Amino acid sequence: MGGSGNRKKTSGIRDISLEAELPIDMISYVFPKGTYAILKYHGDIDNAGSAYGELYEWINDSEYEHAGTFGFEMYLEPLYSSFSEAVFIWVEIL
Known about the structure:
By secondary structure, the protein is of the alpha+beta class. It is built from one helix and three strands; from the N terminus they run βαββ.
């Protein structure tokens, strides 16, 4: 079956000015104003799922609740590079 099972599909967010034209194949999305729980994660990006587990556990144990919206990740360097920097995981809370 072509060996495509090992490819990683990625998507990302890039901060651009509202006046700039979007690059080809990029869509625009403005995140709503809200309160977000943010976790700073250092480590192998393929193991970041455990960080999500910790963040959701913190939300469940706190006075907050998950807003039911999608979270997002903010990378300080290109994905799958040497990854010496952190990734910030944002989840909207109420």
